[in-house]
Amino acid sequence: MSVNKEELFDKVVNLSKRRGFVFQSAEIYGGFRSTYDYGPVGVLLLRNVKEQWWRSMVQFRQDVVGLDAAILSPPSIWEASGHLTNFTDPLVDCRECGSRFRQDKLEDLNSCPSCGAKSSFTEARQFNLMFKTNAGPVIDSAAEVYLRPETAQGMFTNFMNVLNTSRKKPPFGIAQIGKSFRNEITPGNFVFRTREFEQMEMEYFVPPADSDTWFEYWCKERLDWYLNLGIREDSLRLRVHDADELSHYSRATSDIEFSFPWGWDELEGIANRTDYDLNQHAQASGNKLEYNDSGTGERYVPHVIEPAAGATRTAMAFLMDAYEEEEVNGEVRNLLKLDHRLSPYKVAVLPLSKKDELIQPSKEVLDLVQPHWMCDYDQTQAIGRRYRRQDEIGTPYCVTIDFETLEDKAVTVRERDSMEQDRVPIKELVEYLSSRLIP
Ligand code: GAP
User: Fold this and answer.
1) For a designed S-S bond to 134, which of 7, 103, 143, 323 qualifies (C-beta 3.0 to 4.6 A apart)?
2) Whose CA is closest to atom 21 on ligand 1?
3) d(CA 407, CA 375)
4) Ligand 1 and 313: CB distance under 6 A
5) Ligand 1 and 341: CB distance under 6 A
6) Ligand 1 centre and the CA of 81: distance in Å?
7) Which residues in 133-158 are b (16+ Cβ under 10 Å) and which e?
């Protein structure tokens, strides 16, 4: 049963709240607008998205190392990077109703989407998106610091530290996952655009002459990552930026876009940042930021290819793409057909009944599988309802302990998508699941 696009958004938002993926932040105080908290299953999904990114970008590669840089940073970094001057959005106000909009996101420059007034917008003014705060007890301009609006600058400012300690040489990359903050004028569409979000970024430093080749390489590599994790091919596309869309640092950018309920929108940008950032920081700090090959005497400032993805936004896309409804025995079954690597729980252990004689063996089965995978344990309600609950949070395998288990020392394993069941001896259970739950 296909879910129509208009309904999909509401259904996924509703499921997120109902099943514990995403909650409105500060809900008990009426909610803090456009800010979200990740609940018991949401935090697992988000961790799995980040883990899969880390595995493919760092663990499986010898040419990429990791970093975890500070979120608070001095103005000098953002002055050099160009963000203090250029990281702005054009802001307009409606003179009639006072609503504020990003001018570049308005469909009709002459009509207010809130009140419908015509020609009511003020002149656009540039609004800087960085959050500013103060470090220490004295509130003056010398104590001003910024919350990073992208993780990327930590990789540039640590370029020499990493080069000198990691024994890497171009082409090589520095990867980082972490929170970024932007004072978005129009946050919205659930967790798609928020003021606090998580990014997964990698700066890949290459010999200047090779930058176009590496740009193509990373566009393909990153598109394949989403496909490999189960996003449907027709839900994804690569869109090349027009010249007037390019960020101040970019020579070329392509976006990986996802078909959201409101249309195509960005999941990740892959940019050729050239030697812009390293040169800017070298000039501003007075430190040389370049690669020096002691063998050949070759010396140059590498160019940078940057695949920059949003972890929170990507988690939402995985949820939207995996949501399905099926009719089973005259009832609607909601399920998340998530790739098992992303599923919050890999295994649910379910005693058929709450009777004492089933609880002990169920706890033993849980003890057996829990060290290997994130497991849920549920002994409430009828078994059918518990299966439905696990389907809806994307758990690929349910293991049921029944009265026969006491005799045959075997359990029933039910697979989420096919609903097929296998009887598996307990002593073979870990091996059975291991052959299906590839990390
Ligand atoms: N370092 C380059 C950079 O930050 P970006 O296109 O501005 O590029 C990269 O951001 C990714 O971060 C985006 O593709 C998106 O997935 C995510 N992102 C950016 N702003 C966001 C926001 N306000 N809320 C959620 N995710 C955001």
Assistant:
1) 143
2) 193
3) 25
4) yes
5) no
6) 16
7) eeeeeeeeeeeebbbbbbbbbbbbbb
- Taking the C-alpha atoms of residue 368 and residue 353, their distance in angstroms, rounded to an integer, is 20
Please state, in angstroms and as integers, the Cα–Cα distance from residue 148 to each residue in 154, 206, 275, 365, following that order.
9, 25, 21, 46
Straight-line distance from the first to the last Cα atom of the chain, in angstroms, rounded to the nearest whole number:
30
In the block, residue with structure tokens 């998340």: 336
Sign of the CA dihedral with 366 first, then 370, 375, and 376 last: positive
Q: Give the largest Cα separation in the chain, rounded.
A: 79
Give CA–CA dist 437/132, Å, rounded: 45
Best mutation site among 313, 316, 320 for ligand 1 pocket (most ligand atoms within 8 Å of CB): 313
Q: Tell which residue, 201, 200, 176, has the closest CA to residue 67.
A: 176
Q: pLDDT digits over 342-368, tens only? A: 999 999 999 999 999 999 999 999 999
**Run of H or E residues at 172:** strand 172-181
Strands (E) across 232-391 are located at 236-240, 252-260, 263-274, 291-292, 299-300, 303-310, 323-328, 331-336, 347-351, 375-377
Give CA angle at 251 (250, 256), nearest 5°: 70
Among 421, 260, 424, 433, CA closest to 345 = 433
Reported pTM:
0.95
The structure tokens listed for 140 are: 């003056």
- Any ligand 1 atom below 6 A from CB of 201: yes
Adjacent-strand bridge partners of 424: 411
Residue with tokens 């839900």: 235
